[in-house]
From TrEMBL:
UniProt record similarity statement: Belongs to the enoyl-CoA hydratase/isomerase family.
Biological processes per GO annotation: isoprenoid catabolic process
UniProt xrefs under CDD domains: crotonase-like (cd06558)
Originating organism: Microbulbifer okhotskensis
Pfam families linked to this entry: ECH_1
Protein name: Enoyl-CoA hydratase/isomerase family protein
GO molecular-function terms, A-Z: catalytic activity
């Protein structure tokens, strides 16, 4: 593992993008390492939250130009799908982080560009400081933000996504807060760390199984487009609720409430 630093503290797996000389641009190697570390975190029964951040005060400046050049060489050598596979692999990364049952917190500083912008949009909770600059610069480079676009639309809505993607304009942290791209804006690094700990403390008070089920219901709800689909979603959610309240976490939560104590999952 060379491009991702990982550390587990209590209920939290911390993943740090570690290519500071490239402002933590995402390479194919980094994609592979992130996916591996995500799988390991999901298999760890103690882990409920995953913190994603960048080394040396930049989150991520986008995709790695070296991989682009390698794909160009592959295409020149007759590998017709070189760019397709490169682009789609990054989309797989965002899908996995978007759908993981873990609570994903993105801690943002400095550059949040292109693929880094998309990755931030796949997080459940996104906090940033005033050093952040956000942009989707792809169209200025003659390409579309192909894998990023759906996650940006889901985060900020179609109108803002169109403005950002079709102009490539840079957005400051205060503007990002106003359009819902980030959830919390902090003054400095110390305040950022304090806010992160507050979120982790809150997550620690939540039952791990209930967190995973709730996230699944929320993600499914975002795709509901008609009344029939809504009814099916609510039927499924009722079944999940029934299983949960009769399961170990539901019984423990009720006992802890009545006995005026912390539940067993709160460390």
């Amino acid at each position: 593992m060379q491009t991702v630093i990982d550390k587990t503290i209590g209920i939290t797996r911390h993943l740090t993008l570690n290519r500071p000389k490239q402002r933590n641009a995402i390479s194919l190697q980094m994609v592979d390492e992130l996916l591996q570390k995500l799988s390991e975190a999901e298999e760890d029964q103690q882990v409920r939250a995953l913190v994603l951040r960048g080394a040396e005060h930049n989150f991520c400046a986008g995709g790695d130009i070296v991989d682009m050049l390698n794909a160009q060489q592959g295409a020149s050598d007759g590998e017709n799908n070189a760019f397709f596979h490169l682009n789609r692999r990054f989309g797989e990364l965002m899908q996995r982080f978007n759908r993981t049952p873990l609570v994903v917190i993105a801690v943002l500083e400095g550059a949040v560009m292109g693929g880094g912008f998309g990755l931030a949009c796949s997080a459940d909770i996104t906090i940033a400081d005033h050093s952040c600059r956000f942009a989707l610069p792809e169209t200025r480079l003659g390409i579309p933000p192909a894998q990023i676009a759906p996650f940006v639309v889901a985060r900020v809505g179609l109108s803002q996504a169109r403005r950002l993607a079709l102009s490539g304009v840079k957005v400051k942290a205060q503007q990002a807060l106003e359009i819902g791209l980030i959830h919390q804006l902090l003054d400095d690094t110390e305040a950022l760390e304090g806010a992160l700990q507050e979120h982790l403390t809150a997550i620690n008070a939540c039952a791990p199984g209930a967190l995973a089920i709730t996230k699944q219901i929320l993600m499914d709800a975002a795709r509901v487009s008609d009344e029939n689909a809504l009814g099916q979603l609510l039927d499924g959610a009722a079944k999940q609720f029934s299983r949960a309240i009769q399961g170990h976490e539901g019984r423990e939560g009720a006992r802890a409430f009545l006995e005026k104590r912390s539940p067993e999952w709160q460390h």
